[in-house]
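RECORD TYPE: protein structure
NAME: hydroxymethylglutaryl-CoA reductase (NADPH)
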Amino acid sequence: MDVRRRPIKHQSHHRSVKSHTAGELLKPHNQPKASDALPLPLYLTNGLFFTMFFSVMYFLLHRWREKIRNSVPLHVVTLSELAALVSLVASVIYLLGFFGIDFVQSVIRPSPDSWEIEDDNSDQLMIDDDKPVKPCGQALVPHIMPTTDVAESVVEKKKPPPAIEHTSEEDEEIVKMVVAGSVPSYSLESKLGDSKRAAAVRREALQRITGKSLSGLPLEGFDYDSILGQCCEMPVGYIQIPVGIAGPLLLNGAEFSVPMATTEGCLVASTNRGCKAIYVSGGATCMLLRDGMTRAPVVRFGSAKRAAELKLFLEDPLNFDTLAVMFNKSSRFGRLQSIRCAIAGKESLHKVGTVGGGTQLASQAACLNLLGVKGASKDEPGSNARVLATIVAGSVLAGELSLMSAIAAGQLVKSHMKYNRSTRDMSKLASS
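PREDICTED:
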C-alpha cells in the first residue's frame, strides 16, 4: 500500500509510462524549484514582498511619529494601520523564509483530505514510470543511480573493465554518443573515471568513424592513469618499441650499460661495437661545456625593420639589466644569463633531462635507473642531467666510430640489407 496525492479530475487516473532515450538519461533530474510553491515567478514574488515591507514600514513610522507629536496613544490603530501591520508581518515571515522555501510550501500545502490510499497496482505504475529503459548514462553522469539491487551493484563493481572486443551495453551506448558527437571524446576520462575504459571507448568510436581497424595497435598492458593530464591526451593505445642494451660504455672512468629504444636494425649492434672499441682503447673522456635552461620566445613583426630594431635593443648591454629583472620574475629557479637573438634561421638544440615529461613512466624510469640518473639528485641538483648528457655524447661517439669503421670495411650496406630490410609482415604474425 502507498499513500499518494489524489489526481486532478480532468487528468487520467493513471500516469503514462514514458520511455527514456540515452540522451534523456544524461540530463539532470528535475529538481523542485523555489518558485513552484508560489503562484507567481520567484523574482516577481520577491519584488512584491520587498516593496510591501519597505512601504508599510515607512507608512507605520510616519503614522507613529504623528501620534507621538499629537500625544495619541500608539495602541489605538485605524483600519489602514491594522492592514499595514498585517502586511508587515506577512512580508517579514516571507523574507525570513526566503532561503528556506519549505515554510512557504507548508503554508500552501493541501490539507490531508486531498490524499488517499491506492492499491499496489498503482504503486507499480509509479515504479515503472520512474525506471529508465536502459542504464546507458550511469557511467557518464555520477548522480544517476543504478536500477538493480545493492547486491548486484556490488558484484558489477568488482568485475574487470570489459575488453574492447566485448563492450557492454553501457559502453556501446557511450560509443554511439561519441560517434554522434553528443559526448566529446576528450571528456571520456573525466566522465567515466576510468582511463583504461575511456581509451577503449575512444578506440572503438574512432574505428567506427574512420572505418579503419586498429587491431594491430595494442590496448591492454598499459597504465593509462600514469599518462593522464601530463604525457598524452586522448589515447587509443600505445606503440611497442623494443629496448636493446649497448655497452659497457667506459666513460670518465665509469662503466654504463646504455639502453636504446629503436626499431632500426643494426643500430644497437653498431653502437655496441663502438662501445667495445672505446673500452679496449682505455675509455673516453667527456667534458660538459655548458649547463643551463633555454627559453625561445618568438616575436612577429610586420616588417623586417621592426624586427631588426628589437634585435638591436635586446643585444644592447645597457638593456640587459632591465630585461633580466622582467625575466627573473617569471621563474623561481631560472635567472637570465645571456641573450642570443636571430631574425630568421634554424637552430639545432639537443636537450636532455631526468625529471618531468615522460621520465616518471615505468619504462622510462627503469632505463634512467639503469644508468644511475633517475630523478633529481638530492646531493647536487642538476648532476643527473649532466651525467645523462655525457652518456648521450659518449653513445653517439660509439655509434659514429662503428659507422666509420663499417663504411671503411664496406659492411654498412650489406648489414642493413640483411638486418634492416626484413620482408616479414609483423602485423599478421601478431594477429595470429
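COMMENT: Confidence is low (pLDDT under 50) at residues 1-35, 107-166.
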